[in-house]
Amino acid sequence: MSLPAKSAELIESRARLLGPNVSTFYDEPLHLVRGEGVWLWDADGHKYLDCYNNVPHVGHCNPRVVEAICRQAATLNTHTRYLHDGILEYVEKLTGTMDAALDTAILTCTGSEANDIALRMAEGITGKRGIIATDATYHGNTSLVSQLSRSNVPTVGFGLDQFFRFVDAPDSYRNPDPDGTRFAETVAEQIQAHEASGVGFAALIICPYFLNEGFPNHPDGWLKPVAEVVRKAGGLLICDEVQSGFGRTGTHLWAHQKMGVVPDIMTLGKPMGNGHPVGGVVTRSEILATFRKGYRYFNTFGGNPVSCAAAMAVLEEIEDKKLLANAETVGEHARQRLGQLAEKHEVIGDVRGSGLIFGAEMVTDRNSKDPASDFTDRVINALRHRGIILSKLGRHKNALKIRPPMPFSIENADLLIDTLDDVLAETPLHR
Question: Whole-prediction pTM value?
Fold first, then answer.
């Protein structure tokens, strides 16, 4: 497939200036130049409905966030070794949305940094280094955290393999686990293996809604059994809410609340500043005190006044525009319509989600449930050419990942589903 001349030129320049293997989306990468709300425009003026990006959580170029950034940047921006009110006001508002035990925070620039800190916190509290994660997850790209990725295993590193063990990601479609007891049992087995090896068990790190794993269909409270196993073993529960937080599920502001647990440590990133680089770690005061004593951590840009202004504006926008309720209403409508598509298109094996994270798993046969991974890729590329942006995820990369900005409307959802209907009708299952 030949690319337009301008796209080919940009890709060549990226390789020359940024190095090889810099990822792009789609067979024909998008050259985006503008965004507003749930819409994006490319260099040729084509308009796209953004059904994928959770970074502009309250909408591309949200006026409240833009104004807050500009106002603070025109006033003061420095690091936290000088006193400023913004970081205190933000952390107080942020922790006020959670269980009272989660009362302190560190602000970073990225979710990767946040998860790196969380793992070090776990070691500091427990005196052990053994970490457990699922086998189909992603938690970031630092030297430490990148070792958690099984889908993109680092080929070089610092020999940390002995400290990480993995459990099968939950799969409600192929291997139902209605109350979470089976998942808890597999975690318990890996805890025992860590202890037997002499490494010891420090923490389980998970996205509480398992987004990268394909957001399996679990009832509220599903994580309670595994949380009990982790605490009984003296370890910490780390909930990575980089994707699942800030009202994404529609039912709760935080997915760990939906799943019935209070984590020892919660990490945040992507949507926190609506595109401005903000991340964070929220935890109990005694955990943070132990970490501060052992590491004396400082981040030059983490918690700077402009980042805090952006992050505060996001929380205010979610509250003022009732975006949590919007996510629940629009998400329910979208799943109902996807369910109707499943009655029409045999390739849809399963429909699931909560709030504004929803999707359909594509299969070659409903009885065997064999994943239609190549077909899913072709559907996503066809949608891109029809002005709909989304992606895929899960162990087999055959589940549509629909995760739009939070102002996404019923009208937007209808446009998405109508277009998907057409694409499914026109795309052959096999080449």
Answer: 0.96
